[in-house]
Amino acid sequence: MLEPDVKSTIKKRYNIFAQKERMDEGKFKAENGMGLNGQKLLNAYELSKIPNDALYYFMGATTPTRLVEINRGDTVLDLGCGIGVDVILAAYEVGTPGMVIGIDLSEGLIERGNEVIAQTGLKNIELIQGDMESIALPSSSVDIVISNGAINLVPDKRTVFREAYRVLKPGGRLALGDIILERKIERELLERFRENLAGCLAFAVEEREYLEAISDAGFNQLKVVSRRPLSRGELDVMAACPDTRITPPPRKEDVDVVEGLVISIKLTAVKDLH
């Protein structure tokens, strides 16, 4: 599948996902801050800041706002912001002097996100429909870049990290959670995952390649905060995200092969002052 087709398919899937309440016949289930992979990602304070409408679409792999110190007045950029859960949390941290910008490929999720943000009354947020491989922001314009389980969907991760580095100010920080592979998998298996764009598995890369892409972009002080294999239940969900009714699940025997090899990773890095 060629890259333009990849982006078109991913955008279509998440646009459909943005209509999830209609898919579920209006049944609302906000699972107390549960992320897509079943982890409880939000504490009571964080839950109190997020409208239930946003939790219904929450697909996070971590809570990136906890991985980095966010100061009042900072400008924060969220790559693959979805409906804006992490954007909202960051907006409370930066306060009215600051700004939080969210970018997502899906115009449907951006539209939903703006509806959710309107419920909060926050005025320091801007959501942009766009591509994280070509960020529509000036160089050296943001203090912090965060991302939550989104970069794994992008085929060209090196370009994403170069763009993140470009828009960060000197001394700026990167904080993210994502889905990677512990090691390379057989080409034939990878091709099957990519043929059907199997959720987080289609373009997940091995840890060494992922970390090299960050370092090669220019980042320093790269720190892996945590890493752990997904459970089988988590893997089954992530292999067909955002929803099994939208993304055809891969073959069970193919998922069997990668069980224990798909890793949830959290990391931070810094753009040097010079």
Key attributes of the depicted protein:
274 residues, alpha/beta, Rossmann fold, 11 helices, 35% helix
Give structural notes:
By secondary structure, the chain is α/β, with parallel strands linked by helices. The chain has a single domain, classed as Vaccinia Virus protein VP39 (Rossmann fold, 3-Layer(aba) Sandwich). The protein is 35% helix and 20% strand. The chain has 11 helices and 7 strands. It has a 7-stranded mixed sheet, with helices on both faces.
**Main beta sheet strand tally, sense and closure:** 7 strands, mixed
What is the N-to-C succession of helices and strands? HHHHEHEHEEHEHHEHHE
Q: What is the overall number of helices? A: 11
Write out the CATH superfamily name: Vaccinia Virus protein VP39
Low-pLDDT windows of residues: 25-39
The number of domains: 1
CATH C-level class is: Alpha Beta
The amount of helix comes to: 25-40%
What is the CATH architecture descriptor?
Answer: 3-Layer(aba) Sandwich
- Per DSSP E runs of 2 or more residues, the count of β-strands stands at 7
Strand order of the largest sheet: 3-2-1-4-5-7-6
Overall pLDDT metric: 90
Which SSEs are present, and which pair or pack?
Layout: H1 3-17, H2 20-23, H3 44-49, H4 52-55, E1 75-79, H5 85-94, E2 99-104, H6 107-120, E3 125-129, E4 142-148, H7 157-167, E5 168-181, H8 187-195, H9 207-216, E6 220-229, H10 232-238, H11 252-258, E7 262-270
Parallel strand pairs: 1-2, 1-4, 2-3, 4-5
Antiparallel strand pairs: 5-7, 6-7
